[in-house]
Specification:
By secondary structure, this protein is an alpha/beta fold. The protein folds into two domains: 2-173, Rossmann fold (3-Layer(aba) Sandwich); 186-282, Pantoate-beta-alanine ligase, C-terminal domain (Pantoate--beta-alanine Ligase, Chain: A,domain 2, 2-Layer Sandwich). It has helices at residues 7-17, 35-47, 75-84, 95-98, 116-120, 124-139, 151-164, 193-198, 201-214, 221-233, and strands spanning 2-4, 24-29, 50-55, 89-91, 143-147, 169-173, 237-245, 259-269, 272-282. A six-stranded parallel beta sheet has the order 1-4-3-2-5-6, sandwiched between helices. Helix 6 crosses helix 7 and helix 9 runs antiparallel to helix 10 (221-233).
């Protein structure tokens, strides 16, 4: 497996990998790889002949008071995992490579980032769209795989692909969870022992809400309020907990039959922000 840190180098490698008609799968990451990332790499390998992984902690998606400097960086371990998984090459550029020139152009997102993480983290998705747009232009993959845990990101990137005519198919891998239900995340390492025991409460709240709603609750406001209070009593600080439309990612009050929605929550335990979601299938 090759580890490459230049645009010319990764483009040359991709061109070589494409020889003979091979397809290219791509998994963008910020490193600190865990089983969630590994599952995305395995999914990419099922649908493409060769797989490229990027490891890049993107400064453009961090606010000034975010954890950019503290974000875990485990490059040596990450490269070993990629090699074991049969990744063809890892693209690990520096900031100077990705953001080499003075910037005169920016990408603006309308509506899709008004709620959920977009509301809580201004500029977050603009930073993600900017770097993924660059990575797609550099690597030109046939498929790119992202995780459902970041479902708002996936929906926005789907729109980016359409808007900028990227010739790539996006695939969404399922959330990978610990045995107690906690969605795997690199930031879970920030939790102390007591917080780690409490953290699965978000998953349990979402599971209860999903069961009640799919059993026939059409106006979930009271259920949501009850679960927010339960979470607060356990020490969580609520960022959001709501049902959102699948297309426009906006809160919904009444659920319609034969429709799909996103049930999503973001909470804080101490300084650690946890996110999770489930897809609702409303049949009746």
């Amino acid at each position: 497996m090759q580890a490459i840190d230049t645009i010319q180098g990764i483009r040359s490698t991709v061109a070589s990998l494409r020889e003979g008609g091979n397809t290219i799968g791509f998994v963008p990451t910020m490193g600190a790889l865990h089983e969630g990332h590994c599952s995305l790499i395995r999914l990419a390998k099922k649908h493409a002949d060769e797989v490229i992984v990027s490891i890049y902690v993107n400064p453009a998606q961090f606010a000034p008071d975010d954890d950019f400097e503290e974000y875990p960086r485990t490059m040596e371990t990450d490269l070993l995992k990629c090699d074991e998984l049969g990744v063809s090459a890892v693209f690990a550029p520096s900031d100077d490579i990705i953001y080499a020139d003075e910037t005169f152009l920016t990408i603006k997102i309308d509506e899709l980032n008004a709620y959920m993480d977009g509301h809580s983290r201004p500029g977050f998705f603009e930073g993600i769209v900017t770097v993924v747009n660059k990575l797609f232009n550099i690597i030109t993959p046939d498929i790119a795989v992202f995780g459902q845990k970041d479902i708002q990101q996936f929906q926005i990137l789907q729109q980016m692909v359409r808007a900028f005519n990227h010739d790539v198919e996006l695939m969404m891998g399922p959330i990978i969870r610990a045995n107690d239900g906690l969605a795997l995340s690199s930031r879970n390492d920030y939790l102390n022992d007591e917080q780690r025991k409490t953290a699965p409460g978000l998953y349990r709240a979402l599971s209860y809400l999903k069961e009640q709603i799919e059993d026939g609750v059409k106006s979930p406001d009271l259920l949501l309020d009850h679960q927010k209070n339960e979470l607060k009593a356990k020490g969580f600080k609520i960022d959001y907990l709501n049902v959102f439309s699948m297309g426009r990612i906006a809160p919904v009050d009444e659920l319609k039959a034969q429709s799909r929605y996103i049930l999503a929550g973001a909470v804080y335990l101490g300084e650690t922000r946890l996110i999770d979601n489930m897809i609702l299938e409303i049949t009746n």
